[in-house]
Write a structure and sequence with these properties.
The structure is a homodimer. Chain A is of the alpha+beta class. Chain A has 25 helices and 21 strands.
Chain lengths: ~700, ~700
């Protein structure tokens, strides 16, 4: 996988992200407690909270116990890309190291038909050459506070699910607002353990972020879609940004030192990053729903989008460029979902899950105080049936412009309410991020929007049926293609200033707008709100049920449980180690020189073509420099760009992928063959110096 | 479109063909009367029966009335590729001209990793160099006889649908058997007008068919998937075969003369070929079913297969080669279906269909004898609901090997019954074609079969749910991937002789077979038979209803109605004429020299790369030779390779595509922008002489 969260996230912005957001409303909005179904006593399982690390467990296995300072320094050195990825501070003067594929969204937005930074790479020779990113927001986690009691206080037992949901949301928004007012830090209440715990996360935000260096896509994504999720690998999947404050490089106190000699076989390593979503807490019934309905539907939609983008790209090289970022993301997700689905289609997985549920039920039944908790599994079973029934009822389309229009229309009404009664994305504490998204000058291409809107109108008709009043209203008697052409020809939303103007005009402005896309969203709004209310009520019911599941698991399994991933900072650990595949040993490391052999063994055919810069530098390169390596740390989409650090807390690598065996990680962890894949920091430094004439950057790193 | 029937046919053999066969059980097995919804008084609409040509209509518009000899000569000069396409005899010594993409199936089967005829082309310098095709069967239509009365006699009014279906099938098989015994000709009873008429078609079969010449795929499919269904075009989409009898080139009495000066703008032209399937008779309710359920489901399956084949091809150039034929077919179908669905998603189409139904109902109501016929529309409406309910219930997998296994298992039981009680494909009169399919030494690739079987097992689980007993039995506790690997590693069905051995071993042989694929089919057989019986009963009900619809339309519309396409020989006509697209005039013709301009305007990037042979010949070519042209004739998939003839009956071109506007042709004809696309015969002859050093073949043509 490209373990980029971009296409698995519900915080994203692009059409593809919306695709998945809309597809998996419930799952994306739930964070869940890990299952104890897969015994993992000695395995390196877990995406641990920074305020609840399994220090004893690590010490027992690896004879190393992280100190408080060690943990705090790593937390403050870690960076979250709000667009869906991880990173770290790597110098005192603001350098941030992440993956090329995490940066791709920005590279793509900065590129034009003439300057294709995504394909051809970029190097700023001086600070003045560094290019401001269009709409990036980087987050540095500052503190974590448990607010469970206060959130739960707001919800009274007699409340109906919809009412309970609103009360809970209001309490969370209130806590966030108070924190923002008090600290001026971004303040998010995070739902953990599927509703078992609520923690307040405070972040320092960086919004002046500049591009410093990126290699060519040919090197970052060497082997392309074919090698994606495979190992051995030879990818320089890294990019450097720099954060600025007050127009100057930010002064960073906590950054990582470099250790190019680290990450040797069997070394203990840590991964600090933001895994996006796992669903290990799911009950067997909920997994079966995903297997038989949820994932197959998502995959149909991904395939559909993939074909649509491929077809769009056939029109010419410029169209290929325009569609590539989305296409890449969709292909990556499709491959990841294929692996996930394959994992839960294995009958033995469900069987083992059912068996451990039986064991758990027996333990609960033995204790009269715990016995009632078993009801939660039944509730969840019933909820899956409701989910299946409401599967086709979405009232939204997935294109970039439609997304803008939808936000503008909803915002106009939401802003009339007090902040803590609004739909969550419109609360005051999230306003700055929302405005950055809506008002940034990002490129939006009319022909791409037309192709996607045509396909989306067609899908909408297929989903709801051709007689559906909402569909008929959307089409206005025209075919999806003519209607899409008409809308795209007449909407003003391509322009950031037009979007800003509409946002400023308030509810009257929206009501009176003649923009056809605004009008389309207006016609969908009542149904959209209805669907969302129903979905959120189901989510709330499920949240309450999983809170009970959590309670049961805490009661039986002790406190050695970590919550499912929630795109918040987590620590994973493991050892650098190869594995066996089809009876052959796969070593843990590859070397820089191996990239040339890999190219030759594929006859240098696309996508196995190294860039010219590599061939030019071949004779100067230290060919035996470690390049990529694998370890057993437990990661998932969103961990892309996470620093890999040694027990000394120094950087030894940067996560960029997981092997194909790791794709079941959404549902369960195993260390038999599943591995996280990283670029070795020695390879990064050597490439900067010997291939990219960027020794000055290598010199800054770690200092 | 590539208007090759291969991927739209129910007579096909490959996995992709099976894909569509299984997807559209009802629609494929029904032939239907054209709708009178779209008024086409002066338009060149219609795929006319050779024994019921609209001679007066043609004479009125074009001042030309075909004589009986003219018609008979054209019928006997026309050739059907049983693998799914059309062609014609073009010399007295057995030359047959068809499309490269019709020949692709054969070119692919004759190719190896070393000799890739499909990509690189082929030329036999002498008769001795001509290569026997693996499993081709060519049909020459000899006679047509109306057997409606005899077929209908067998069906008694009191019979239940399943019983009626069996009685009808038995009568048809009996007629075919008697004809075969009497004439030794292939004898097919064809269902026309959705069950309104039954005609007996007798064919002379040619099974010794040899490859003579094919151009490179780069030239035949110049512009690739991007240009497919577009116009202007520059494709040499032709291939020459030769039929043999007794080891010598067959002596052909009826073949087409060449007219390289023909097909000028506004000329009347005729197209004689085998359109595969249209559904113009469908009632508005039936179209709505296709719009909301049938086509969307088919498209999901096509996209799925397309992605699976793309992923398979990523493994290397040899995998790309192995998967290309299927991938091409699936992409072609997906693009065609996209156009079809777009056509019926236009609300104005359904509206006009409903309006003309209302008019028809009014006329029926006015005549007490006709009034009861209106009930047929209600029956059809009810049948659509049944179809929707039974949509996911298939009990078959779509891979080449599974197809072999399924035929072998069914055949063993079927052969115990009298011929006319068997499932239709196992009747005696079809045995020779079936055996050619089963026992030919066609290449089957284990890695491709494994990839497809994995995906099919996964789909099967998605369709029926993971708890379905049939799914559990198929997987035997393993994941789709492990189970597919196990089956492919152990089945013997890759070998034609093993298949023959199993076929010879009869029912006991099948029952005792340890072959895992045979065992898998055995476990599916009862459910497969059940599903098929239910589907065929629904089909029979629909057939009886459409027979009434036909009766109603004949009563109201007179005899100027043609039946929907049935992959049997039809005559279409029209004029050579350009059209308007996006406000610009598209001329009817392109010229050979234009191919080089087309290449240059796309920077000679794939797929716009002309082969070396073209560049080498560029200076010798007559650049202004007509190359491709369009006409208004009414065609559809299956017409690929159809000769285009002048009023003198001479060949002026060969159909190879339809433009994007023609894709609605499945449901309705319009001549506003919709056009059939042909290679001009002048271009073919010039290319043979000046590019391919095949003047000796050009000299034989027409003589």
């Amino acid at each position: 996988m490209k373990i980029n969260l971009r296409h698995l996230s519900n915080s994203g912005k692009s059409a593809s992200r919306q695709l998945l957001k809309a597809t998996l409303p419930a799952v994306c909005s739930l964070s869940m407690l890990t299952s104890v179904a897969i015994p993992a006593a000695q395995a390196d399982e877990g995406m641990w909270l920074f305020n609840a690390l399994p220090k004893k467990q690590i010490a027992q296995k690896y004879k190393f116990e992280p100190t408080e300072d060690w943990v705090n320094h790593l937390m403050l050195s870690s960076v979250r890309f709000n667009s869906g990825g991880s990173a770290s501070f790597v110098s005192s003067n603001g350098l941030v190291l992440t993956n090329h594929h995490v940066a791709a969204d920005t590279l793509f937005k900065l590129s034009t038909a003439e300057n294709n930074y995504n394909e051809n790479g970029f190097l700023a020779k001086t600070l003045a050459d560094e290019i401001p990113a269009t709409d990036l927001e980087l987050n540095q986690l500052i503190s974590i506070e448990d607010v469970t009691a206060r959130v739960n206080e707001a919800v009274k037992p007699q409340m109906a699910p919809a009412e309970a949901f609103k009360a809970r949301q209001a309490a969370m928004a209130q806590i966030e607002k108070e924190s923002l007012d008090k600290t001026s830090l971004r303040s998010d209440v995070v739902t953990l353990y599927g509703g078992g715990r609520y923690h307040l996360y405070r972040y320092k935000k960086y919004t002046d972020v500049r591009l410093v260096w990126a290699p060519e896509a040919q090197s970052a994504f060497f082997g392309g879609d074919a090698d994606n999720f495979e190992y051995p690998r030879y990818c320089l999947d890294v990019t450097l940004f720099r954060v600025y404050e007050d127009g100057k490089p930010a002064k960073i106190d906590n950054f990582l030192k470099m250790d190019p000699t680290g990450a040797q076989t069997d070394d203990l390593v840590f991964v600090s990053g933001n895994p996006g979503r796992t669903r290990r807490i799911l009950t067997a019934d909920a997994v079966e729903y995903q297997r038989d309905s949820g994932l197959p539907r998502t995959m149909n939609q991904l395939r559909r989008r993939e074909i649509t983008l491929q077809q769009y790209g056939l029109a010419g090289p410029e169209q290929t460029r325009r569609g590539r970022d989305d296409l890449f993301g969709v292909q990556n997700s499709r491959k990841a979902y294929t692996g996930m689905l394959a994992g839960i289609q294995d009958p033995s997985f469900i069987e083992s899950k059912r068996n451990s549920e039986k064991e758990l039920f027996a333990k609960l039944a033995a204790d009269p105080k715990l016995a009632p908790l078993a009801q939660a599994w039944e509730t969840i079973r019933e909820i899956q049936i409701k989910r299946k029934e409401s599967l086709l009822k979405s009232a939204s389309l997935r294109t970039q412009l439609y997304g803008f229009a939808e936000k503008l229309v909803l915002m106009a009404s939401e802003d009339k309410k007090p902040s803590n009664e609004r739909l969550r994305e419109f609360r005051d504490s999230a306003r700055q991020s929302l405005e950055q998204e809506l008002f940034s000058e990002v490129p939006v291409y009319d022909d791409l929007e037309r192709a996607l809107l045509t396909d989306e109108l067609s899908r909408f008709m297929e989903d709801r049926g051709g007689k559906d009043p909402l569909v008929l209203a959307a089409l206005q008697g025209k075919s999806p293609r003519s209607r899409a052409s008409e809308i795209i020809a007449n909407t003003k939303l391509f322009s950031a200033s037009a979007r800003k103007e509409l946002a400023t005009a308030g509810l009257d402005g929206i009501k009176n707008s003649q923009d056809p896309l605004i009008a389309l969203v207006r016609s969908m709004e009542p149904e959209y709100r209805k669907v969302r209310e129903v979905t959120e009520a189901i989510d709330e019911q499920e949240r309450q049920a999983y809170a009970k599941v959590t309670e049961a698991k805490f009661a039986v399994g002790g406190d050695s449980v970590y919550p499912d991933a929630t795109f918040t900072l987590r620590l994973s650990y493991g050892s650098v180690s190869g594995y066996e595949s089809n009876g052959k040993a796969v070593p843990a490391h590859t070397k820089l020189g191996g990239a040339f052999d890999h190219e030759a063994s594929h006859l240098a055919k696309d996508p196995w073509v190294l860039p010219k810069s590599w061939h030019a530098a071949k004779d100067n390169l230290q060919a035996d420099t470690p390049f990529n390596f694998v370890c057993t740390a437990d990661i998932i989409g969103g961990n892309s760009g996470s620093p890999v650090v040694s027990r000394e807390g120094a950087m030894v690598g940067i996560i960029f992928d997981g092997n194909i065996e790791s794709l079941t990680g959404d549902f369960y962890y195993t260390d038999k063959q599943s591995r996280a894949v990283a670029v070795h920091i020695a390879g990064v430094l050597e490439a900067l110096r010997s291939i990219y004439q960027a020794g000055h950057l290598a010199d800054q790193m770690g200092k």
